[in-house]
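hi! just following up on the protien thing from before. the input was this:
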Amino acid sequence: MSDAYAETVDSLPVGRVALIGLFITALVVAQLTASKLLAFSIPVSLPFTGNSLAMPGAALAYALTFFASDCYSELYGPTEARKVVHVGFAMNFVLLVLVWSTIAAPAAPFSQVDPATFESVLGASTDIVVASLLAYLVSQNWDVFAFHKIREYTDGAHLWARNVGSTASSQLIDTLIFVGVGFALMPALRGGSPQALDALLALVVGQYVLKLLIAVADTPFVYAVVGYLRSRGYVPTAPASAN
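and the predicted 3d structure came back as:
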């Protein structure tokens, strides 16, 4: 291996690649699982949801994108974090092209997967696609912005505050846009019937409660990832907080 090539490899530490990989993987999984609605029983009763939490199947995978982006944003700064967000947005279209082209391609007569079943599982509706792309673009950019505003306000202290604060606000934005556009606005624009208000509120409350719990629960892991990568000397101890 030449010295020049070795320097190029060394400039891409495994930790940085792993965070980008986690972000993109969670993002594309969220896109593929967004159309299925889930319901989980809970021991308490909440407004609009009662004793169960209703949410799109993408809720858990999408919550992981905020964990990855907060770690990345803390380590490499807002400019680099926005690059990852925008690359992820482009990868959504790559995913859609690949899935839809596979759906359109003729199935082999000996295929054990029924084409109609394959399309119904992987072919997300236009409503879901538009809602998820819009929610992603707005909420992820807000997450980076809010994370570093809190970082500036606290003078770089209290990582937990910017992790929870940025994720809590961005996840609320994401939830409202995704549910409002995907299950109310888009059906109405197509001349269909949007979901009833109670059902919409149940989806909002259900997935936001889950995302908020994940934001709190993942804070120790954010500390662990950031601390480990800094201890390995992969990143500066205090990246620029605004660009």
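The beta strands are 37-46, 50-56.
The mean pLDDT is 84.
cheers
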